[in-house]
Design a protein that fits this description.
Number of helices of chain B: 21
Distance between the termini of chain B: 35 Å
Oligomer: heterodimer
Number of strands of chain B: 21
Helix content of chain A: 55-70%
Largest sheet of chain A: 3 strands, antiparallel
Radius of gyration of chain B: 26 Å
Order of helices and strands of chain A: HHHEEHHHHHEHHHHHHHHHHH
Strand content of chain A: under 5%
Distance between the termini of chain A: 8 Å
Strand content of chain B: 25-35%
Number of helices of chain A: 19
Structural class of chain A: mainly alpha
Structural class of chain B: alpha/beta
């Protein structure tokens, strides 16, 4: 025991390396990575507008012209994230900086981005975009709302079956390309998971942390609150809210977040109760360090790992909740979502396998991927399991 | 010469771990005559336990292999036996007891059932009543009072010593020829340890069994062994009769281990004389750095729906003591006597129920955390467990400089880093260690860093809570000598909490003995250790296993 061998990596780096040891987690991360890429660059991957075109010697990019507020916000947040995580500052500061930056971008986008209103059919095919010298189209040259009825499409065509057009995953009843809709729906799947879990995490850490550190009466009141929220059935609350206030993606995120924090609060509370008695926390108290440093520097980072495990499962749960709602026909109307596509598949009079298999498979893969990541992460932070994989005489 | 009961010849045990082969036991040979005790001594990781487990064939077959050697038990090679064969030997002919009595007993079965099961397994012909009789007999043999009534008790209803007695009863239920005891008393208090050791010697006399006794404590060796083997990294470096090994050790490693025992440790030259002189003078003018008066720390026991307080655990009960400037006060007592709680209460980490704590005349109890902050700088604490005493997420640099920053020591980060590096050098570590994480260090190094952190605020008073208990004896010796040297350089006053009498004698100027939350005796260390007055102190000192009984 006296000689561990020199191991220079930090605690976080060690956890990360152990998490990445399995094959499953790599597949899971690859899938989530693909989703992020697809979600961020959806307008450039699947769109009826040319990426780049030349007309009478003038080169223009109509896609950029038609980017809506959401597109701009997602794109700039993505690049902001890349930039922020290259900075050499602490993780907490990175996250704060990112949140601040993306809020500013959201406000700016709302103020200045005014894309022309799209009239379905017409705008995509006006001569301004079709009669050109040359044009580069996106890999999937159909927008999710580009219904091809006007071009004589019968709709509900199986993959590779339609004449004159290539639809890799077939078309739905209006003739819109299924693949294009899948790509744009990735956004909802990702954002609902991340934002709902983010809301839940924030509430959970604050409430759980207060309960754990102060214990006593705060703990008792907090636990009753946790128990109350544990008893709320999320799905039925969502149904009620949809019935009263109409459909909104943001409302769904908030409700899923607000009803699912109790598990996180329990986690944080237990960790803090345990950590409070640790010698290094006692030493920090004995050194007269301020409460904020004790809580956020000495306690939270040591208790956050089991929390992140349950977050990855929570993300999967949120995605499923949204898919369930959309499948019941209570999801978002104007934007495609995987659950809503499944609903379409069931509602049509004939069974069209491509309408069910692709979105269903995507939901399955995404939930599965997050579960794989969570599983592997849990194994990595479990000291009993890590003892087996590390050399220990 | 008569045939020995157990004859281990050139035993090799290799362990497979993450693609590496570790030579846990590397060519050891020893033998145990009938009715005698062989002690395996060594520091942690030297291969003592693996040797014992090899004899029992208890190592997982996929991981452990025996590339060479033989283990002859009554002339039969245990390594050649098949599974059924070794099962007939285990329990019936060779039995084993372990260190942690709580983990070795099944918490959901009562102790009678657990012993009966072992008996039934080896004597299937016995009727239920006969088994029960034998079980009660086994419990009486290990001197459990009212054995027939305690038959149905569960492990949690027994004290640590009683659990270890039950373990011994279980091991002896089938009258084995050889008992393997793997650190059986390490987790026990010293007075309980003395009782268990006495019991084991007596049982050996009664039954004529042999013992393979594993320990790290040379005092225990001196009490138990006829034969001693000293292990170092898988090799048996010295084997011989007990008195010869302990008095005239031949191998340098054995000598080094013996010299590291607190009773054999040399004080740094001049320290004792120099420190005693001014300390006695200051005693005359009665300048106490710290005075504790009638301190109580009571923990409420709450019961019922309304959680009203029904009683208190009196962890510290009306304790009064003074710590003179510049002296080391040892606080001695068995586990649960309240010594750690007292140490934490002094630092206001535990809120005292009543009483007064004065540091240089300033009352500390009842201060808000803001008012307490200037005093925090003057008193610090170092902990027992090297695993949990440092924040695993922070660089050593952060651990050392953060308190300095809060208390305004050092003009800028540059200067604080320099101070932190000097601290590491003070505790004899490399200054580059600033840029490492705690998991990169061994237990002894972590304890040094823990000391460096306690010194970071340049305090006048440090509470050392069992800081050497989790360490091997040679590392303990280094830490103790270091502590004395730093005390000298920085004029520190120490409250040294420990259960190790040897350390007390080596280190301290004054001693306070605690028993069940109360101070039973206090005074100069030499007086208390040489001429104890209170019956508990006498019992405690008599129970300490000494290397040489004539000492």
């Amino acid at each position: 025991m006296t000689n561990h061998g020199v191991n220079r990596e930090s605690f976080g780096a060690r956890i990360w390396r152990r998490t990445l040891q399995g094959v499953g987690v790599k597949l899971g991360l690859a899938w989530v990575g693909l989703l992020v890429f697809v979600a961020v660059f959806a307008p450039f991957l699947a769109n009826s507008m040319p990426l780049l075109m030349s007309k009478d010697g003038v080169i223009s990019a109509p896609v950029l012209h038609y980017l809506n507020i959401e597109d701009v916000w997602v794109l700039s947040s993505f690049f902001l994230a890349l930039a922020v995580f290259r900075l050499r500052i602490s993780t907490v500061r990175r996250i704060l900086l990112f949140l601040l930056g993306s809020a500013v971008v959201a406000v700016c986008a709302n103020l200045w981005v005014k894309p022309p209103v799209l009239v379905i059919y017409d705008d995509f095919r006006i001569p301004a975009y079709t009669e050109v010298n040359w044009r580069i189209m996106p890999p999937v040259p159909y927008a999710p709302t580009d219904y091809l009825r006007d071009l004589g499409s019968k709709g509900l065509e199986a993959p590779f079956q339609s004449e004159g057009h290539l639809h890799l995953m077939g078309t739905e009843e209006n003739g819109a390309d299924v693949l294009s809709r899948m790509i744009h729906a990735a956004r909802i799947a990702l954002s609902i998971g991340l934002i709902a879990s983010g809301i839940a995490l924030t509430i959970g850490v604050v409430v759980g942390g207060l309960m754990g550190y102060f214990s006593g009466i705060v703990d008792m009141l907090g636990m009753r609150l946790v128990e109350i929220f544990e008893d709320i059935p999320t799905l039925f609350l969502l149904l009620t809210f949809v019935a009263f206030f109409g459909r909104s993606l943001y409302m769904m995120m908030v409700i899923i977040g607000v009803t699912s924090w109790s598990g996180y609060a329990r986690f944080v509370r237990t960790e803090f109760l345990k950590l409070r008695k640790q010698d290094y926390v006692q030493a920090a108290v004995a050194s007269g360090l301020p409460l904020s440093s004790i809580l956020f520097r000495h306690m939270l980072p040591n208790g956050v790992a089991p929390l992140l495990v349950s977050v990855s499962f929570g993300i999967a749960g949120a995605i499923l909740a949204e898919a369930t709602l959309s499948f019941l026909g209570l999801g978002v109307v104007d934007a495609p979502s995987w659950g809503q596509m499944l609903d379409q598949a069931v509602k049509s009079s004939t069974f069209n396998w491509w309408m069910a298999v692709f979105p269903g498979g995507a939901i399955f893969m995404t939930v599965f991927a997050y579960n794989l990541i969570g599983e592997s992460f849990r194994d990595a932070i479990d000291p009993k399991l890590s003892g087996q994989s590390e050399a220990k005489p | 010469m008569i045939q020995p009961l157990l004859d281990v010849r050139h035993l090799h045990t290799y362990l497979q771990s993450a693609g590496q082969q570790i030579k846990a036991v590397d060519d050891i040979s020893f033998s145990i005559p009938k009715g005698e005790t062989f002690c395996l001594v060594g520091e942690s990781g030297s291969g003592k336990s693996v040797s014992a487990l090899s004899v029992m064939r208890l190592l997982p077959p996929g991981i452990a292999s025996h590339p060479g050697g033989e283990i002859l038990f009554n002339g039969q090679d245990l390594l050649q036996l098949d599974d059924a064969g070794i099962r007939a030997v285990r329990g019936a002919k060779i039995a084993m007891i372990f260190q942690e009595p709580m983990n070795s007993l099944n918490p959901v079965l009562n102790i009678g059932e657990q012993i009966s099961e072992a008996i039934q397994l080896h004597y299937p012909d016995l009727t239920g009543e006969e088994t029960e009789e034998r079980t009660i007999l086994a419990l009486e043999q290990v001197q459990i009072p009212h054995a027939s009534r305690r038959f149905r008790d569960f492990p949690h209803q027994l004290s640590g010593g009683q659990r270890q007695r039950v373990m011994i009863a279980m091991a002896l239920a089938c009258a084995p020829r050889l008992l393997i005891a793997d650190e059986p008393t390490t987790a026990l208090d010293v007075t309980v340890q003395a009782e268990i050791l006495r019991l084991m010697r007596q049982l050996q006399d009664d039954t004529g069994m042999s013992m393979l006794f594993i320990t790290h404590d040379f005092g225990v060796v001196a009490q138990m062994a006829q034969w001693v083997g000293v292990m170092q990294s898988g090799k048996l470096v010295e084997v011989g009769p007990c008195s010869q090994v302990l008095r005239q050790a031949r191998h340098p490693y054995t000598r080094q281990l013996l010299a590291a025992l607190p009773e054999n440790l040399e004080r740094p030259t001049g320290v004792r004389l120099q420190s005693r002189q001014p300390a006695n003078q200051s005693l005359g003018t009665s300048t106490h750095l710290l005075s504790i008066r009638d301190l109580k720390v009571w923990f409420p026991i709450k019961k019922g729906l309304l959680r009203h307080t029904v009683d208190f655990v009196r962890a510290v009960d009306e304790v009064s003591l003074d710590i003179p400037q510049g002296q080391i006060l040892a606080l001695v007592g068995e586990s649960g006597c309240g010594k750690t709680t007292l140490g934490r209460a002094v630092l206001q980490l535990e809120k005292p129920t009543s009483g007064s704590i004065r540091l240089q005349g300033h009352e500390l109890t009842g201060l808000s955390s803001r008012d307490l902050r200037p005093f925090r700088r003057k008193m610090q604490i170092a902990f027992q467990d090297p695993q949990s005493s440092l924040n695993p997420r922070l660089l050593i640099e952060t651990t050392l400089t953060e308190p300095m920053k809060v208390h305004g020591i050092g003009a800028d980060q540059e200067e604080r880093l320099e101070l932190a590096a000097q601290l590491l050098e003070l505790v004899q570590l490399n200054r580059d260690f600033l840029w490492r994480y705690p998991h990169e260090f061994s237990g002894g190094q972590r304890q040094r860093i823990g000391l460096a952190r306690a010194l970071a605020l340049n305090p006048e008073f440090i509470v050392c809570d069992e800081i050497t208990s989790a360490l091997d004896v040679s590392v303990q010796a280094e830490i103790l000598q270091l502590l004395l040297r730093i005390r000298e350089q920085r004029q520190l006053t120490l409250l040294f909490i420990t259960h190790n009498i040897g350390v007390v004698e080596y280190l301290s100027d004054k001693t306070v003995v605690m028993y069940q939350g109360k101070v039973v005796e206090q005074g100069d260390t030499a007086q208390i250790c040489g001429n104890p007055r209170h019956p508990y102190t006498q019992k405690l000192l008599a129970a300490v296993p000494r290397l040489l009984r004539s000492h």
